[in-house]
Amino acid sequence: MNLRFSFTELLCAVVLGVFAISAQAATAETKAAKDTYKTTVKQADSDYKAAKDACKPKSGNDKDVCMKQAKATYTKTKADAKASRDTKAAHADAKEDKMDADYKVAKEKCDAMSGNAKDSCVKQAKVKYHQ
Quick check: is 74 in a domain? Predict the structure, then answer.
């Protein structure tokens, strides 16, 4: 039995071993990220349902604002969960989703106003949330 290896063969074996270990670690990390994402979204669904139920006794614009706030919180939680498992593009998408959700809440709050005050409120919301 001859156990002589050339330097190149040994180097290739080491590189392949490191690659195999890296691939296993990446797969485990990806599975953990997916599991965390699923758990976070499931919790967000539950929290959103509870928040909507808490809005039911309210009426008028207060109820509308409450519902928009519940939806915004839900959207932002899901966006954060998505961003935590994906790339830089996902982080940018999450930031945009959160800004849009906050804009909808601010705009709904403006509905309680009228005339010039409402116009000014909407304009400020558009500037603040880049709409």
Answer: yes
CA dist., res. 6 & res. 113, Å (int) = 81
Instruction: Say if residues 126 and 103 touch (Cβ distance below 8 Å).
Output: yes
CB 85 within 8 A of CB 37: yes
| Confidence (pLDDT) at 25 | 46
Residue 1 lies in a domain: no
Q: What is the pTM of this model?
A: 0.56
Provide the number of structural domains found in the chain. Answer: 1
In-domain check, residue 62: yes
What is the reported pLDDT for 106? 92
| Residue 39 counted as domain residue | yes
Owning domain of residue 52: 7-128
Mean pLDDT in runs of 10 for the chain (131 residues)? 55 51 51 83 93 94 94 90 73 84 92 93 92 87
Residue with tokens 């195999």: 20
Q: What is the DSSP string of 28-88?
A: HHHHHHHHHHHHHHHHHHHHHHHHHHHHTT--HHHHHHHHHHHHHHHHHHHHHHHHHHS-H
